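Incident review: delayed structure delivery

Summary: a single-chain prediction request sat in the queue longer than the usual turnaround. Root cause was a stuck worker, restarted by the on-call engineer. No data loss occurred. The affected request and its eventual output are reproduced below so the record is complete for anyone auditing the incident later.

Affected input:
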Amino acid sequence: MTKIIGLTGGIGSGKSTVAHYIDSKGIPVYIADEEAKKLMELPEVIASVNAIFEENVLDDFAKLDRKKIATLVFNSPIQLTQLNNIVHPLVKSHFIEWLKLHSNAPFIIKEVAILFETGGNTACDKVILVTAPEEIRIQRAMLRDNVSKETILSRMNNQLPESEKITKSDFIIHNIDLNKTFIQVDEILKILSKL
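Output delivered after worker restart:
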C-alpha cells in the first residue's frame, strides 16, 4: 500500500521549495494549499465562503479575494474555523481521489502547512518538518508575500510552535542553505524508499 509522507513547516520555512524539489525527482507530491486554491474557484465554494463574512470578499472578477480573506480570518478565530470547515473536507476528498491515481507509488508526499494543527499527521506514515530560524522565516515570508513583519508574526501565532512540531516529526530538514537542504532531502528520500 502507498505510504503517505506528510511534509510541513511554518511560514517561510521553505516547505514549498522542498516539495517542488521532491516533485522534480518524479515522486508524486500533493500540495494541499495549491489544491485548496483551485477548489476555492468553484462557484458553490465561492458562495459558501462569501457567506461567512459580513462584508463582501469578492474581487472585481467575482472571485474570492484571498488577501482580504487572510486578513479577516487571521483576526477572527471563529471565521477561520468556518473557512476551514468549508475548505478542509473538500481538500480531503480531493486528496483521496488523487491518492487512487498514485496507488502504484511506494510513497507519496502530502504537503500541508497546518498538518499538525488539523490533526492530519495522524493519517501519515511519517512526517517531514522543514524548519529555519524564525528571523530567516520572517524575512522570507515578508519578501514573498510583500507584507509587514506584524502580519507574518500574527500568522505565525496561528500555527503550532516549531518546538512542538519538531517533537512530532520523524525527519527534520534545516533549510538555511539550499544546497545543504537538498542533500538532507536526498538522504530522507533514500530512507523512505526502503520503508
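Verification: The chain has two domains: 1-28+102-195, 35-90.
Action items: add queue-age alerting; document worker restart procedure.
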